[in-house]
Amino acid sequence: MTGPLFDSYLIVDWSAAGIPKRGPDSVWLRLESRAGSLLENPATRAEARARILTLVLEALQQGQRILVGLDFGFGYPVGFAEALGLAGSPWRAVWNELCRRIDDRATNSNNRFQAAAEINQRLTGGRGPFWGCPRSAENEFLGCRRNDASLAGLAERRLCEQRLRRSHPVWKLYTTGSVGSQTLLGIPRLASLLSDPRLAGRAAVWPFETGLTAPYSPGAIFAEIYPSMRIAEARPGEVKDSAQVRTLARWFRELGQKERLSELFEGPADLTPDERRQVESEEGWILGVL
After folding, report:
1. Strand boundaries in 114-260, DSSP class E
2. What is the pTM of this model?
3. Domain that residue 13 falls in
């Protein structure tokens, strides 16, 4: 295939807010396409999910290929699905389990801390592997601080997080830099979006459904991103989250125009065969980490 991999780039900074929220630390969407750019700040995850679906369907109806980057983990350290006793493809089994456990309502109210505590109880009977919460949510099975003794034999970090040390592990649910709550709430929303029959055969999750390779089909590719990967300089009055999605969307678009985006999808060349299988079947990868 010659030419850019994608026609449009939709970058989403996710949020675990417990109430409808706009501005800092809320959901931001940035679309870069041939027709121009678009910036939106939905107040809830339900609104964001609906808007993402609309934008993806519009791109597909116009015969475009679209990259959708979402700022939350798509997977957990290898062995998580097995530790939970889940059968089938590990990443899909974990997604199904979170869809069953997470209650994320249209108002943004959710049970993420309760769900994490229940998983901790099942895995270790203690405060791990998930950790981090407000004092009001702390209990016998979920603590405010990390408990290294309660990882249930699981790694603290995925392979991609080991390479990007300034990132935070998916077990961390609360305080600065945490991505764990966004992951618990993001995966069920993404799974729901992908279940829309209008996307059947037209969307795929990288690298779980495509492998660590440049995805030339279908029309919509969903990938995990890390907005802080690029230095984003906020304009006067601009929210940091807005600056980050703008910067990352333009970076991906520029790489696409130079036909250099495919190398990001192929991941690091020095991954071993076992590590590649680990990434493709369970852990996932952050697009752009090499």
Report:
1. 203-205, 220-224
2. 0.97
3. 8-73+181-283
